[in-house]
Specification:
The chain has one domain (2-236): Undecaprenyl pyrophosphate synthetase (3-Layer(aba) Sandwich). 41% of the residues lie in helices and 13% in strands. The chain contains eight helices and six strands, in the order E-H-H-E-H-H-E-H-E-H-H-E-E-H. The chain has helices at residues 21-27, 32-52, 65-70, 73-96, 112-124, 141-159, 168-173, 220-231, and strands at 13-17, 57-64, 100-104, 132-139, 185-188, 207-210. A six-stranded parallel sheet has the order 3-4-2-1-5-6, sandwiched between helices. Strand 3, helix 5 (112-124) and strand 4 (132-139) form a beta-alpha-beta unit. Helix 2 runs parallel beside helix 4 (73-96), helix 2 packs across helix 8 (220-231) and helix 4 (73-96) packs parallel to helix 5 (112-124). It is globular, with a radius of gyration of 21 Å. The mean pLDDT is 94. The chain binds farnesyl diphosphate. Farnesyl diphosphate (FPP) binds at residues 18-23, 36, 39-40, 43, 62-63, 67, 82-83, 86, 135, 190, 215.
């Protein structure tokens, strides 16, 4: 059961891999399209809950490069239409909820009518100061890193910088997400234990929460449950608990390392 969140330990950035639209439809003997349509409905519930709890950054994996390349054209076209409809129907609600919309990914490769609607929605919500909703569209983590390295290499050539002076902040500056903090919490729906090429650089220390719930059934309350679970975790960023000592594994007999030996 959901209890209240600790206001002192709210995440700054929640990212979500929205998965399971097809399975949701399949379970009901419906076409996959209807799963995506229900999935688009679920998006707005979650966005408004994020706004109500004052979450500064919410990033949703809405359309991957792989989706674009590997799904049937009819499904890709449907997803593009759904995105346009989602934006047209929800910009007013985003404004009512002080939500600003942005995008990451190779968006220049999306159809022109989609890009126009995206630009319109970004412009219409530009002045909002609450949650920034970022949709990852035509996004892939490796292609983001490739684009970042291209940008950085061009800069290095232009400015004649020494390679030894390049550090992680230089790579970070060239990511699509340079303007936002790394996610504190990554949620994945539909039970798969995979990252699927999402925010590969950014999730180095992100807490991961996987739920079996399929995306079209996911609501704000389920995001709050995930955040509640996150608040019970201790983040160590590669360090140790305060005061804890490491076990002296080297001196333990084998039967204490592997049962049955
Ligand atoms: C995975 O379901 C979901 C996607 C392809 C991306 C998410 C898309 C939406 C939520 C709909 C549109 C979004 C917006 C922002 C309007 P799947 O088809 O991979 O499901 P399956 O693994 O069960 O087949």
């Amino acid at each position: 059961m959901y209890r209240r969140l600790d206001a002192e330990r709210l995440p700054h950035h929640v990212a979500i891999i929205m998965d399971g639209n097809g399975r949701w439809a399949g379970k009901r003997s419906l076409k996959r399209f209807l799963g995506h349509q229900q999935g688009a409905e679920a998006v707005q519930y979650v966005v408004e809950t994020a706004s109500r709890i004052g979450l500064p950054w919410l990033t949703l994996y809405a359309f991957s490069l792989e989706n674009n390349l590997k799904r049937p054209r009819a499904e890709v076209n449907f997803l593009m239409r759904l995105l346009r409809t989602y934006l047209s129907n929800n910009v007013q609600r985003m404004n009512d909820n002080n939500v600003r919309i942005r995008y990451v990914g190779r968006t220049a490769e999306l159809p022109e009518e989609v890009r126009e609607r995206m630009a319109w929605a970004a412009e219409a919500t530009r002045g909002n100061t609450g949650t920034t909703l970022t949709l990852a569209l035509n996004y892939g983590g490796r292609s983001e890193l490739t684009d970042a390295f291209r940008g950085l290499c061009a800069e290095v050539q232009r400015e004649g910088r020494r390679l030894d002076d390049i550090d992680e902040t230089d790579i970070h500056r060239h990511l699509y997400t340079a303007h936002m903090p790394d996610p504190d919490l990554l949620i994945r729906t539909s039970g798969e234990m995979r990252i699927s090429n999402f925010l590969l650089w950014q999730i180095a220390y992100t807490e991961i929460f996987v739920t079996n719930r399929l995306w079209p059934d996911f609501r704000g309350i389920h995001m709050l449950e995930a955040i509640e679970d996150y608040q019970r975790r201790e983040r160590r960023y590669g360090g140790l608990n305060d005061g804890s000592e490491s076990d002296d594994v080297e001196s333990l007999p084998a039967n204490q390392l592997v049962a049955g030996r």
